[in-house]
């Protein structure tokens, strides 16, 4: 055993220990935050920067090698012990007649630690790690590391991207049914498997000796079926299931890792060998092939269509209802032009959001549906925008068609810019909601090539805009619209109040995200936006009466100054650090626990049933589900009767732990619900829109 020497490092970074070095590698203990807070999960990890030609090993090292170990103990201001390593998917390392599984280059082996205690001083992390590094020779190494974290609100450290990449490299739960035959034939069935989707596949078992790891694994795949001919090893029958990681490589060269647990079953008829694959396709686990791609687009369209009925979009739908009454009696082409501009705004906004999500994820960041609402500055800006819209509807200032008024333009050409900007606003306020079918479509989009992903976002936008296009374009329906009249002024003013109610909701979200100081900034901004609206209305009134041009220009200049001052305050708004307690967990039913992977694993090991609720304050669908279903008396009584532990993950602010959990289940946003019965490690995923009956049925099994 080689004990590494301590390299002379003058000052260790707050989230990385002093390095221990050898001629083979550099090893450090790292954390994903630079402070700690009791009760907030802390991610720790052994980081190995392996020299070229050297490698270390996975949990199953294969035919040769030894798995690394890591034990971290916390002391001082808080105590705790790290859990098991969350293993990223490994590489296959062939050495002559031997096959090993491991890692090369810069690798992070992460684990989770739950600090407990008073948090009244620095927390000292002491870690012991052992690992084996091999090239032409193998050298066992060990290291002892010390890292001190001050108490305080956790914020992402310089090493946080390493943890995000490690989480993304973890195998996703397989969506396919898997069986293993007595002769070693591994069979997978399910939508998304096809000759145009899988170019190569290989299986790596969790247990050493379960299969002959060096033997070839002939692959045969057809639509909906995949088989690998594995050669059983000495430990093939040692466990009731064959557990491991299945790697799927598509024709574009992208590799996906799926965690599978194959149950005993008969050997399936092997499909014919696949022909040469085309140059590109949609990566798994999204549905593949023409039929699968069409299904994903239909799901996206249906999700966008249903989004019209979600509470997030209600204020904007009310505004469009007002626009429809204004169009009553207009020529069909005029109605279609306005509806087309609205649809263009909707689809364009979906494409921009989708492009930002894909760019962030390609850069290693974790971004899901509704990610922009995790920004306190964005929440405040939307609140001010909606407040200005409400003032416009109340007649404080008048620019005709809705949102274009905010820029003082777009009222020409039939107000088409206003229609387009209304579509953009509809998408912005819709993102806190996830309609049925949207979760599967977004998850598929984020694992697909960029052009397929953008097609999915376009389909969602088309679904959201479709009802208005139909109403505007079908003359038979247009005849049923009420005729314009004096009543429209009363209706227009009344529409301001649902929008003002939305502003109140956004204030609550911001208070949970960033605290009381942010509310003071938000309130100041509301005063400035109101002042700008009043000055704009004053200038408009003087202009209509041919008032002095100098005074009109002064009012407009002061209005722009007020808006500029408000916008200048936005960069100072910051959401609470990742893992900070917003109070959303405490707002749940009595006995609600904050989500923790370590706690979840411990409860499962004890055989306790667990219900996991991933939520956010800005997710209206989440809040409605909690009020209607999860907090209902029958569901709470069933939780108590069956001793179900109710765990709540708060994604109001960015949280890498929750993001990794969502990623591991192929999801990109909230709400997300999983029920883990005793003995069921995979759990049962519930729909995004809940009723008491759905939850009770899941508890019954």
From TrEMBL:
UniProt-annotated location(s): Membrane
Single Gene Ontology BP term? Answer: cell redox homeostasis
Q: What is its main location?
A: membrane
Transmembrane segments in this chain: where?
Answer: 296-318, 339-363, 375-399, 420-445, 451-478, 490-511, 517-542, 554-573
GO CC annotation: membrane
Presence of the UniProt keyword Iron-sulfur in the record: no
Please report the record's description of how this protein sits within the membrane. Multi-pass membrane protein
Q: Which residues form the signal peptide?
A: none
The reply on keyword RNA-binding is no
Q: In this protein, which residues make up the domain named Cytochrome C biogenesis protein transmembrane?
A: 297-507
What is the name of this protein? Cytochrome C biogenesis protein
Please spell out the taxonomic lineage of the organism that makes this protein: Bacteria, Pseudomonadati, Pseudomonadota, Alphaproteobacteria, Acetobacterales
